[in-house]
Amino acid sequence: MPTIAVIAPGAMGSAIAGRLVAGGARVLTVLDGRGAASRARAEAAGMADAALDEIAGSDLILSIVPPAEAAALARRLAPALAAAPKKPVYVDLNAVSPETVAGIAATVAGTGAPFLDGGILGHPPKPGTKGPRVYVSGDQTGPALVLRDLGLDLRVCPGGVGAASSLKMSYAGLNKGLTALASLMILAARRSGAEAALLAELAENEPALLARFAKGLPDMVPKAYRWAPEMEEIAGFLGPDAAGREVFEGFSRLYARLAAEPGAEETAALTAFAEAAAGRT
Amino acid sequence: MPTIAVIAPGAMGSAIAGRLVAGGARVLTVLDGRGAASRARAEAAGMADAALDEIAGSDLILSIVPPAEAAALARRLAPALAAAPKKPVYVDLNAVSPETVAGIAATVAGTGAPFLDGGILGHPPKPGTKGPRVYVSGDQTGPALVLRDLGLDLRVCPGGVGAASSLKMSYAGLNKGLTALASLMILAARRSGAEAALLAELAENEPALLARFAKGLPDMVPKAYRWAPEMEEIAGFLGPDAAGREVFEGFSRLYARLAAEPGAEETAALTAFAEAAAGRT
Predict the structure, then answer these.
(1) Looking at this predicted complex, what is its ipTM?
(2) Range of the domain at A64
(3) Contacts of residue A178 in chain B, CB cutoff 8 Å?
(4) Each residue of B24-43: pLDDT tens digit?
């Protein structure tokens, strides 16, 4: 029975873990310092709490954390990895830029453990669904193939460390950028009294986009707080493209504003637009 | 027979004029200072060259020019409008911000001529198609309804001067912003070697978006030079929304870059992606 460490037991991590447990794996995680919701998710998914040296004794370590914590997790695990007699493969599955990945890869390389880049595209797996695509890239992706036997939709992205993260950044940038763009235009139409006309135009001439907004806007609202730093990572990914950096810094600023607005007027307006849109599609 | 002035005979203006002529209107334009292509388009559409005082004697004047020229056109026509014994209705159909529209409205108000705000959503009319939606807004939209009898898909946008422009800005911002966003992510994936993986992901999981890009990217390339200032207008439209302004300033910078790139590497890459996408959808 393979032992897979999944850190942390967030919404995505615990859902991935649940699928691996159902597929026959022993799944470890770190509950030290986590709150009640994480502990409940971990228990429901069948994850076992473990100390860092036990984590370092796994076959694979899957890092699934908010982007801003990805590098810190690698540094936190590094001493245990360095001390481990048999090294696990460290797989970073986070929405981080290839530059951030390179730093994490360097941290892991210093411990002697093999490293794979990765990215998760799609929503957390639910019973009855195939689940998200889990891409990995790197020199030796073979050890990750066990995840496919355990029930994940594992795919190898050609191109070495950085390629899977680039794919994730591009895909997430399109999807979450489109939701940000829709939010900007709906809010602007609302400020100038053209919101109903915009809804009618989209219903008539862009029904596929409108259906997407009907679902995507309410889905975004509770996640805006973590999409803001993810947009910053994508701005970093865009590197030499100054125009693209400007666009994603704007998206980040928008999501931060929506996450923080005291009266929730804008998020309420977007949710109401989505409800009206759902009635038109 | 109503007399409609359409300025200028660009791709949109001449196509609108052709439809009005087919519908039974006499259509005037100003060819003074225009090049051979404009003259050829005007002739093909059945537009007649006219002096400014003749233009001011029309029933309606439709301003259809690049956004940066909209205010200048109103100033250029103002003396003739002020001198006209019977005032035509001046309809600004350009992709300009409500703030720019307010300035144009003030110029026209000074001549005593009635003013309507407007916006064109969709592509130039072609034989056999219904054509774009032509929205007008303002206090008295009645005189514009003759355009419907003449074959245009004329619609009244509630909300007074500024509402039709707001609708146009919101709709154009969504459409042209989405094409800019796709360009940014495709070019970034290409720089990091993940372009083929992104194409495969979109073909599998976002076929409607990919089909849109297959058509939208090649359509954008020859228009990027005028989309750049249009994105600036939309940034102005976003007014108090600093995040939105940042996003559309980035889009403007992108389109300016694509319009100006000496070796055309990026536009060639986007066209090639669109061709590959067309083969997958």
Answers:
(1) 0.92
(2) 3-160
(3) 178, 181
(4) 999 999 999 899 999 999 99
